[in-house]
Amino acid sequence: MLEKGCRVVVGLSGGADSVCLLLLLQRMSRETGFFLAAVHVEHGIRGEESHKDAAFAENLCRERKIPFESFSVDVPRRSRETGESPEEAARVLRYGCFREACRRFRADSVAVAHHAGDNAETMLFHLARGTGIRGLGGIAPVGRLPEKACAEGESSACRIIRPLLCVTRDEIEAWLSGQGQNWRTDSTNTDTSYSRNRIRGRVLPELEQVNAQAVPHMREAAQQLREACDFLDEEAWRAGAGAWEERVGQDSARSVCIFIEPFGKIHPCLQKHLLLLLLGRAAGSRKDITALHVGMVLELTKMETGRRVSLPGGMSARRTGDGVELSRATGAERRTSFSPRSLQIPGETMLENGLRIRTEIRNVTDFLQEIPKKTYTKWFDYDKIRFNVQLRTRRSGDYLQIDADGGHKSLKKYFVDEKIPREDRDRICLLTDADHVMWVVGYRISEAYKVDGQTRHILQVEVIS
Known about the structure:
This protein is of the alpha+beta class and 465 residues long. It has helices spanning 16-32, 48-63, 75-82, 86-105, 116-129, 133-136, 169-179, 195-210, 214-239, 260-264, 268-283, 291-300, 331-335, 411-417, 422-425; strands at 7-11, 35-42, 68-72, 109-111, 142-144, 159-161, 244-248, 254-259, 308-311, 315-319, 323-328, 341-342, 347-350, 356-363, 377-381, 389-392, 399-401, 408-410, 430-433, 436-440, 457-463. The chain is built from 15 helices and 21 strands. Strand 10 and strand 11 form a beta hairpin. Mean pLDDT is 85; it is low at 150-155 and 331-335.
């Protein structure tokens, strides 16, 4: 990661991990002979606490005579404008600042303070969300800045390095205490509305009760899985030679075409791996593409011509006469597509297609009135929801409950019965509880979630644009 003459910028939040990284790299820079600077990003979320973090980071660098640069960004604004979660908006803006810091300091690497616990959280997050071997490989020690952090048409020459992946948070704090060095604590780290915080605060401690070395063991497994994935990359490209091609349309739009006959002769394991690589190639990034989406495209290879599925990032896959075409939506099509989003409850969620959904939880005893009969405002029994509510388009296995006796109907049959055009079905927004469709937005809701005499809490969902 580090050698004489290189130029490194450290992402310094002021927390224990980044402070430890800064101090260690400063010691190494003196021994090895590389340039070191630091960058702090204030996210515009935590008010005075956030500004104190920035002051702490600046003072630490001043005391140690380390070049320092600070940026302020507006995460809530980006989240509202793009529909990204606050975590994703913060990540994109943060890495954009890192890229700018690299430019200003003429640096070739950004060092960030992910540690073994972060790696374990990432593995579990990917596993729960749906992933393959690559996702279970966790965080790579060396990578590139995300494409979203770069200006349009620009690729990043700046690496990301993660020197602390081999140590745990407990080891980091013990080392800092031994140095007599303090650090800042982010109050949002205990907010369990964030998925990673729930994994960190609830899931990992339980796994460590099973085995105290759970996190180091997961780190070792991740390394082995990354090695296996690198091997499968090579084998998938080799096996897929002649099974796909990239095409450029009249409007310069690029697509990837997979040919069924040669593709069908590839080993199933390599088929899935090749599809993941090709989806990433067609989309320009593998971000948000999971094992679920690979399975959807694989299933499409067995369907009749004309069938289509929607994929993250405005992507779609269409069954053609001799294969499957992967392409990105453009123009009007782009405006009607969106990636799956977890519904903010209570709060507001914005999708890439411009749809904005506002939610509110009401206590039924304090709100006694007739249920509104509006096409774009619906009430649901909040306590009947079992999983994380998502906004997404259809996928295989979706269904509704159509009567009070528990009768079910597949979403596909519902669309057919309602005479909804086939070309529109992949664009309709769904409110879902796993595979159970709570609301076909603009149409009906499932009987299973209707407000009744046993309801205690009402979830009000309103489409406002």
